[in-house]
Design brief:
The chain is an alpha/beta fold. The protein has 2 domains: 85 residues, Leucine Dehydrogenase, chain A, domain 1 (Rossmann fold), CATH 3.40.50.10860; 123 residues, Rossmann fold (3-Layer(aba) Sandwich). The protein is built from 10 helices and 11 strands. Helix 7 links the parallel strand 5 and strand 6. The N and C termini lie far apart (46 Å). The structure holds 5,10-Methenyltetrahydrofolate. The site of 5,10-Methenyltetrahydrofolate has 19 residues, from helix 2, strand 4, helix 6 and helix 10.
């Protein structure tokens, strides 16, 4: 079994990205990212901190805007308008999920789609499905970079994705379809899930249930991508895949932590650098 080592791939990408940051700075542009975090969800705080750290390491400008859970939609929308108009900010995102008091769609729609580094804005979703992406959702982009790094060719492969979220499942499907895979999206209403997942050459799991996928879901030699960020019975970070159970059946697998997570951040940073390059080139 080959471990798909997100930390290793991320640091290899970091070297290339640091050079791009340096080159764009020579042209007088420093790539700038902002992250809006609402409330004090501890997991979100960890991700946000990791994003800040990576941005700083790459020599980028990075600002965190932290609102209390009681923030009003208006305050949030005002901040978004300010970032839309801030020329130093190439891209920004609002960490999801938001508190129930806030209309998530309205917030996402308020982000200028040219600065929507998450690729969640409706026009960016459309561009992605047409096959002419502007910005791409970071987790999906990170997964594709990872597979490319390990020379996993998707052309003609059967891909099964468990999970149909706008953040992960759907964009992974669009991007793998563009690589000529045969893509199936499974979800909570799917019948005979195990029979379906056993047809997968590549299985992507993004459901948010700790250790849900065991070896009886997997074809011998499958590539398994675990997008889960869950806690096991001892409160330890784990994925949606029972790693120890599947490790002798899968040919390649992402660990949690150290798999998709670091790649998500890499993809996000790369997206901001691309937007900064566009700014520098006018
Ligand atoms: N608008 C928006 N965009 C997102 O991209 C977004 C979001 N909202 N909401 C939450 C999810 C989750 N996410 C992660 C990013 C990095 C790690 C990460 O760095 N993980 C490390 C460390 C995890 C740890 O130590 O806790 C790892 O897997 O090795 C995890 C999860 C981005 N998300």
């Amino acid at each position: 079994m080959i471990l798909l080592d997100g930390k290793k791939v991320a640091s290899a990408q970091d070297e290339k990205m640091a050079q791009r940051v340096a080159a764009v700075k020579e042209k007088g542009v420093t790539p700038g990212i902002a992250v809006i975090l609402v409330g004090d969800n501890s997991a979100s705080a960890v991700y946000v901190r990791n994003k800040q750290r990576r941005a700083e390491k790459l020599g980028m400008n990075s600002q965190l805007i932290h609102f209390e859970a009681g923030v009003t939609e208006k305050e949030l929308l005002d901040k978004i308008a300010e970032l839309n108009n801030d020329p130093q900010v190439d891209g920004f995102l609002v960490q999801l999920p938001l508190p129930d008091t806030i209309d998530e769609d309205r917030v996402i729609n308020a982000i200028d789609s040219s600065k929507d580094v998450d690729g969640f804005a409706p026009d960016n979703v459309g561009h992605l499905w047409i096959g002419e992406p502007h910005t791409k959702p970071a987790t999906a982009a990170g997964i594709l970079t990872m597979l490319d790094y390990y020379d996993v060719d998707l052309d003609g492969k059967n891909v099964v994705i468990i999970g149909r979220s706008n953040i992960v499942g759907k964009p992974v499907a669009a991007m793998m379809l563009a690589k000529n895979a045969t893509v199936t999206i499974a979800h909570s209403h799917t019948k005979n899930l195990k029979e379906l997942t056993k047809t997968a050459d590549v299985l992507v799991v993004a459901i948010g249930k700790a250790k849900f996928v065991t070896k009886d879901y997997i074809k011998d030699g499958a590539v398994v991508i675990d997008v889960g960020m869950d806690r096991d019975e001892n409160g330890k970070l784990c994925g949606d895949v029972d790693f120890d159970d599947v490790k002798d059946t899968a040919s390649m697998i992402t660990p949690v932590p150290g798999g998709v997570g670091p790649m998500t951040i890499t993809a996000l940073m790369e997206q901001v650098i691309e937007l900064a390059e566009d700014r520098a080139n006018g």
